[in-house]
Amino acid sequence: MTELIIYESKGEGDLFVERTVEALTPVAAGAGQTEINLDINQTYQEMDGFGASFTDSSAYLIHQVLTAEQRTEAMTRLFDAQEGIGLSVLRNPMGASDYARMLYSYDDRPEGETDPSLEHFTIAHDEEDVIPLVKEALKLNPAIKLFASPWSAPAWMKTSGSMKTGELKQEFYSSYADYFVRFIQAYKDKGLHIYAVTPQNEPLYEPAHYPSMLMLPEAQADFVKNHLKPSFIKSGLDTKILCYDHNWDRPDYPLTVLEQAKDSVDGVAWHWYGGKPAAQSDVFEAFAGKEVHFSEGSGGEWIPPFEQAFSNVMRTGIEILRNHSKSFILWNMALDEKNGPTVPGFGKSTCRGILLINQQTGELEYTLDYYALAHFSKVIRPGALRIGSSASSEHIRSVAFTNTDNSVAIVLFNDSDKAENVSIKLQGQEILACNLVGKSAVSVLVPHQ
User: Fold this and answer.
1) Mind listing the pLDDT tens digit for each residue in 263-293?
2) Whether residue 429 sits in one domain with residue 368
3) How many angstroms separate the CA atoms of 369 and 357, rounded?
4) Separation CA 370–CA 352 (nearest Å)
5) 183-220 pLDDT, tens per residue?
């Protein structure tokens, strides 16, 4: 039998442990089993990958707070495909988000001044921490794709005159489209290609305590169709445009944008803070050929650690992939012991990063989100193609892919509290039989034979 590479998480003290086939509890002959049937002839989406965000806060913590030795370790464990978990997608804010040390855009002007020709545009802020880390990540994993999303246009472009709340003024639609072009070109000048952008992060949420901008679906369709896409074409940019970038509970938003903007939009980006992952499939089926991406999901204090929080990432991640997503991106790459830093006036933060970097002690910790993400990114590599995967028990959640080297990756999660006997069959032939304890995760890599 071909030797399988297996990673197993049984609980907080036993996370993402590489084991041999024999180390998994074998199933006794004749024991009742849940069958997982894999079909390589049934294919779905191609993966771009898995990752998180170098927010201003995350980049600062990794680049400035960690020692050089700690930073090398963290970046290797995050991005190296052999020594680490091989993260391959970054979705970074364009300007300040809620997780930034200050409010900033790429074209800030004194109150009362405007700059429609973007004479003062600069990405100097990103050159301090964000860009050096992106370059370091790319050295470790050249397959990384860069996504970017603004939380707000520059304050002078908005009805509120602030980076908090307000809408984009109609008179600045063209300037804002040029703002995206300048951003993409500035990153290109640094040797970095922006793979995809969204016009606005969470366009239906307008909080007053961090950067935000209301952008209704009709406005987004107008902006993309009549300004953003034409500016990309004029400038010769191949960066993809993904609409929406918000929760599953409002599929009417991307449906409206796709109907009105049509070929100007390449796909839809989703978040997990409301609704169900099936919304991804509903929109995908309505607009065949439009890509599906999952661009943000954060863990946090609202779901108790460890088991409930770990289980949530595993079960939801599997469902995100089973509903056609080409990416699975969590939120902050790193936060500190206070779940920050956050923008001034934010208040108490409850989010959790992939890394926890204690600013008081200097300690570096890999959180449960790191290990849950590892179950996907370690075995499902960029370019992998999802294949058919069905389970005879509703408690065993599964997703499977064939990688570009023809290896087969399977991610399983036992969503019950009881142990389950599992038999994995590839094209009808059993490749692994084992016992999965309750709430455990197993990732299996079947090398090309």
Assistant:
1) 999 999 999 999 999 999 999 999 999 999 9
2) no
3) 14
4) 11
5) 999 999 999 999 999 999 999 999 999 999 999 999 99
Quote the domain boundaries for residue 261.
48-379
Rounded to whole angstroms, how far apart are CA atoms 391 and 103?
48
Number of domains in the chain: 2
Domain of 319, CATH number, reads: 3.20.20.80
**Residue 433 near residue 421, CB atoms below 8 Å:** yes
Structure tokens at 300: 């946090």
What is d(CA 171, CA 405) in angstroms, rounded to the nearest whole number?
51
